[in-house]
Amino acid sequence: MGLILDSSLLIADERGKFDMPGFLRQFSALQPVIAAITASELLHGVERALDPARKARRQRHVEQILAALAIQPFDLTQARVHARIWAELETRGQVIGPHDLQIAAAGLALGHEVATLNAQEFQRVTGLKVVDAAPFRRP
After folding, report:
1. pLDDT surpassing 90 at residue 27
2. Which end of the chain has fewer CB atoms < 10 Å from its terminal CB, N or C?
């Protein structure tokens, strides 16, 4: 079993609103990784930054994350799981965001838990083990 970090944790960490060292101390045995879509979300945040200082700060933060964590590619196995849970959630009228859906599919396909600050959204996915990281949120 492993642990996929949702972008919500990483973005909150960049903003100083998440105790990443404390979180990683508690969950390091699960060998945290990120999904490829999370890497894209983080890189998108860098590209969107209009202020050069903010862009540079985000770039440093993102590059540290990308160097420190393994990135799980979105493969055919995950695509099949993605399609199944997407259809299930649509049928129930409980669709989640498209990026979160890919992260959830990665979690199910790999047998990993998903750590997030958006636990309610991920808990809609049947069979997905969700780690609510809210206790590590900083004011």
Report:
1. yes
2. C
Written as one string, the DSSP assignment of the chain is --EEEPHHHHHHHHTT-B-HHHHHHHHGGG-EEEEHHHHHHHHHHHHH--SHHHHHHHHHHHHHHHHHSEEE---HHHHHHHHHHHHHHHHHT----HHHHHHHHHHHHHT-EEEES-HHHHTTSTT--EEE-GGGB--
Residue 30 lies in a domain: yes
User: Quick check: 62 pLDDT over 90?
Assistant: yes
Q: What's the pLDDT score for residue 1?
A: 86
Name the one residue in this structure whose structure tokens are 């069979």: 127
